[in-house]
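Same chain as my last thread, 46 residues:
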Amino acid sequence: MSLISQHKRFISWYQSKLGISDYGLLWLVFFKGVIVALIVERLVNF
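reply #2:
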C-alpha cells in the first residue's frame, strides 16, 4: 500500500472519528498549524 493511500485512509478515519466535515477538518488543521508555528517560534527565540 502506498504512502498516499495510507494517508487518505488515516484522514478518512480521523474525520469519521471526530464527526466533522471536510470544511471543519480544514479549519482544524489550519489552527493546528498556527499553534505549531507559534511553539516553534517561541523555541527558536530562546
